[in-house]
Amino acid sequence: MKGKRPLESQIILTQLMGPTNANTLGNVHGGLIMKLCDEAGGMAATKHARHPAVTVTVDSMNFHSPVHIGEIMTVKAEVTWVGRTSMETRVVVTAENVISGEVTHTNTAYFVYVALDETGRPVAVPPLILETDIEKDRFARAAERQAIRLKRLQQDKL
């Protein structure tokens, strides 16, 4: 199976945030941000695997700063690690003030997906081709997170 580079499956979603996306403080709902992160991550995983990918785990979802009404929110997802049938995606959210042009990093999240065949069973995914030091570092950190996730999974079964 031919490998793929992270950029080959990168997904970028961009949307202007309006009043219907926000709470009474003018901040975009965290649930909406999580939903868009999961969608972008799922699309990146599906694009990498060329099979439907379903969410297995939300490893982490960090909120660094709010997204406000009137800002352009960009959600960027890419595959950082692959196993036999599963993939981790790193999702970064930024908010751009359209008047000042200032861009703020608002969220970082890691999701895990599994690729499914036409019968709904897990299917092998292509390896990840790592070319840059950043990609190699992200892969190594993702492998560490995967080991922790597997340990947690075993503990959850007790």
Produce a short descriptive summary:
The protein has two helices and five strands. It is of the alpha+beta class and 158 residues long. Strands 1-3-4-5-2 form a five-stranded antiparallel sheet.
Distance between the termini: 36 Å
Quickly give the CATH architecture.
Roll
Measured by DSSP, the beta-strand proportion falls in: 25-35%
The shape is globular
Determine the number of helices (DSSP H or I, runs of at least 4 residues).
Answer: 2
The average pLDDT is 97
Contiguous runs where pLDDT drops below 50 for at least 5 residues: none
State the domain count.
1
The overall strand count is: 5
Helicity range of the residues? 25-40%
Judged by helices, strands and strand pairing, the structural class is alpha+beta
Could you name the CATH homologous superfamily? Hotdog Thioesterase
Q: Enumerate the strands of the largest sheet in spatial order, edge to edge or round the barrel.
A: 1-3-4-5-2
Q: Main β-sheet: number of strands, strand sense, barrel status?
A: 5 strands, antiparallel
Radius of gyration: 17 Å
Q: What is the CATH fold-level name?
A: Thiol Ester Dehydrase, Chain A
Order of helices and strands: EHEEEEH
Provide the CATH top-level class.
Answer: Alpha Beta
3D structure, described in words:
By secondary structure, the chain is of the alpha+beta class. It has one domain: Thiol Ester Dehydrase, Chain A, CATH 3.10.129. A hairpin with a 3-residue loop joins strand 3 and strand 4. The longest helix has 24 residues. The protein is globular and about 45 Å long. It starts with 10 loop residues before the first strand and ends with a helix. One of its GO terms (cellular component) is cytosol. This is HotDog ACOT-type domain-containing protein. Keywords: Hydrolase.
